[in-house]
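Exercise 4. Each item below gives a protein and its sequence. For each, produce the structure-token representation.

Item: TlpA family protein disulfide reductase (Thermoactinomyces intermedius).
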Amino acid sequence: MDKKKPLLQIFLLLFLAVLTVYAIWSFRDSPSKSRAPQNMTVEEYIASHALPKQSQAPDFELPGIAQETVRFSKDSGKPAIINFWATWCENCKREMPLLEKVYQTKRDQVQIIMVHTTHLDRKEAAQQYIKQYGYTFPAGLDTDGRVSDLYRVSALPQTFFIDKNGRIIHHQIGELTQAVLDQQLSRLTGS
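Answer:
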């Protein structure tokens, strides 16, 4: 009987090994719905899951970094630029001076709203960063990710350009350049 026990153990181990190899081989060849298509860039994949151009921008209200309430309403009749950012995002940091300049020079023509992705960062870090660099634009705290979800933000930075009718006319994935900002501002303001 003792001779049969090692033989049974070897058989069971061999069976499990074959079953494991089969499972791995089968899974490897099966298409996965969560995988990005291999012929898409990261930017194309993110864009394919974003709000479509010409769709209505969702309204929102957030607590602000400076204790105020930060609101966006598509019915305001004023074009808007909504930027999603975090303090750990280097591209976000590089584009902030551009957005501050627009806020300082065109806030009567265009709303500038910065949405801090607080659910991915820390509120204190955002407050310190805004204070350290003296930024004055409205900055809301998306503590639960609700607004990021409404706008389908899956990478940072992302900037939405919204016309006076509340429609998204441009969605910038990645760092905003002066050229893109100038082009989109011209479309928003007609100048």
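Check: The CA atoms of residues 50 and 149 lie 10 Å apart.
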